[in-house]
UniProtKB/TrEMBL annotation:
Keywords: Disulfide bond, Lectin, Signal
Stored InterPro entries: C-type_lectin-like, C-type_lectin-like/link_sf, C-type_lectin_CS, Ca-Dep_Lectins_ImmuneDev, CTDL_fold
Alphabetized PROSITE patterns for the sequence: C_TYPE_LECTIN_1 (PS00615), C_TYPE_LECTIN_2 (PS50041)
GO molecular function, one term: carbohydrate binding
Gene3D superfamilies for this protein: Mannose-Binding Protein A, subunit A
Signal peptide positions (record): 1-20
Keyword Lipid metabolism in record: no
Domain C-type lectin: 41-155, 179-302
Protein name: C-type lectin 14
Length: 311
């Protein structure tokens, strides 16, 4: 009976806390809540193509913004003018990629059902390749080429917000390790070391660092329990990018610029490498290794939990 009660409490509180930050209107520290849109917003001032902007937003757990109505549009324009007054245009989550002349939102709704305030004379399909949409200052829409690079806005709707209570973050894909006080996510899309580092940072985390054998054993078990998707990509199987490097040529440092504390017997061959390969990795069994930074492979991100445990 006692055991059943404990299980019930764990399930109950886990469900309750899964959306525990909705009431506090918090998603991520780099997003701002705007009540008119019932969501969280972030202006990206590093220009991307329309497709790349969608990827950036998705990595942050959000989506490429489009206005649902006039009230949201004007509230976001005001946010834009307060926070990025020098920026003239923003890419929006609207396109006519499926049917020319039929502009829809990224969730498939006709633009006419949401925000349809076009700049005079637009859309005009100039050059025959303007299949995406950007937003000019003042709130008017304009069609533009999808490979046109511009600033953009990401949005996270509050009704989609979930909370990973043990990891104290919105990303539900991270697994809590009580012994380390950290959370980890195994990424199974192969990328280079530099790209892996950037993806972890977009999730407000970092490439994982192994400090001792307990860390190595835990990550090896996490890898074993993570399904590996079938992919035609050419990548280094069985190796995972990790958060250390020797790009300075002065020894192995973590992504936080601290000296790596792993002992020599944790490295493959029981020796700390000094060769040409300057990026850090880990074999599936937990042994550390150096790797060419341009090699594509899976990777692991880590997050300092700073949570209140349920048990």
């Amino acid at each position: 009976m006692f055991f059943k009660t404990i299980v019930f409490l764990i399930v109950y509180f886990s469900a309750d806390f899964s959306n525990g930050q909705r009431e506090n209107k918090f998603f991520r520290e780099d997003y701002t809540y705007i009540d008119e849109g019932k969501g969280f917003y972030k202006i990206h001032q590093h220009q991307q193509t329309w497709f790349a902007a969608k990827v950036v937003c998705a990595r942050e757990g959000a989506s490429l913004f489009f206005p649902e109505n006039d009230a949201e549009a004007m509230a976001v324009v005001a946010f834009w003018e307060r926070t990025a007054p020098s920026r003239e245009r923003m890419l929006l989550g609207m396109s006519e990629l499926l049917v020319t002349g039929d502009f829809v939102t990224i969730d498939g709704r006709p633009v006419t059902e949401v925000y349809n305030n076009w700049k005079p004379g637009e859309p005009n399909h100039l050059g025959g390749d303007e299949h995406c949409v950007n937003w000019h200052k003042g709130g008017v829409l304009n069609d533009c080429p999808c490979d046109y690079r511009d600033d953009f806005i990401c949005k996270k709707s509050i009704h989609t917000l979930e909370w990973n209570y043990l990891c104290n973050m919105s990303n539900m894909d991270y697994t809590y390790n009580r012994d380390a006080g950290k959370c980890y996510k195994v990424h199974t899309t192969p990328v280079t070391w530099t790209e892996a580092k950037a993806i972890c940072e977009s999730e407000l985390t970092q490439l994982a660092v192994i400090n001792n054998k307990a860390d190595a054993e835990y990550l090896a078990s996490l890898i074993e329990s993570t399904p590996t998707p079938r992919t035609a990509d050419n990548y280094m199987r069985g190796i995972y990018h990790m958060g250390f490097h020797n790009t300075y040529g002065a020894g192995w440092f973590t992504v936080k610029d601290l000296s790596l504390t792993a002992s020599p017997d944790m490295w493959w061959g029981n020796n700390i490498p000094k060769g040409d390969y300057q990026c850090g990795s880990m074999f599936f069994n937990g042994q550390l290794n150096n790797i060419d930074c341009a090699t594509t492979s899976f990777f692991i991100c880590e997050h300092e939990a700073q949570s209140n445990e349920l048990l």
